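Hey, I'm writing a tutorial for new members on how sequence and structure tokens pair up, and I'd like a real worked example in the thread rather than a made-up one. If someone can provide the structure for the chain below, I'll link this post from the tutorial.
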Amino acid sequence: MTTPKKKTQWTVDEVMTRDVVSVRPDTSYREVVDALVGSGVSAAPVVDADGQVLGVVSEADLLHKIEAAGDERHRRLIGVRRVAAKAQARVAADLMTAPAVVVEPTASVAAAARRLESAQVKRMPVVDADQRLVGIVSRRDLLRIHTRPDSEIAADVTDHLLRRLWIDPRTVTVAVADGVVTLSGTVESRSLAGIVADHTAALAGVVEVVDELTWERDDSELVASRGYAFATPERLLRSSGG
């Protein structure tokens, strides 16, 4: 019988905003400003008639016009042609930053967080396989995973021990306080104890894992001799002859 899999991480489609403020390439500067200010957002995707994302126009893109306005000396010092062009732009197509940094709805929140950090943006469009806009995800959206109740996190950890690691939950005590998970009890091997801690750390909403697990058998040398860079429950069972 196949053991049903328990999802260990939330995905973008579970935290993203679906009601997205977007603009068209020919949307005027003033209309873009009205859209952002009126909706209380800092950026909006620019989409074509088919809903495909062409770029993103942000408050930073719009501010170039204000920076240059009425300041001849600053206009001469702008230097960078791209910035100068945006200062003179009148429609979203000329204001936007393209290509846009996007993410798929099936991506994990961890992957989305890394992409936001790497691109140094606060939010990014969520697109389907055809690059059509389906939502937008922000840093604040991603932080929602850490608003989960401790009881819910504890239930996830216990369920994960049984379904994915085949460990009797009665042998491991799970305590959660403010997202910090403390694991105590005894498992079969040292390697398995490490896997329990690692898998727990990957669960949505877990801030930190305090590993107080003990083990019946120290199999670290055996695992190293077999060349297991990443030990799995299946490999551990095979290595022990189970």
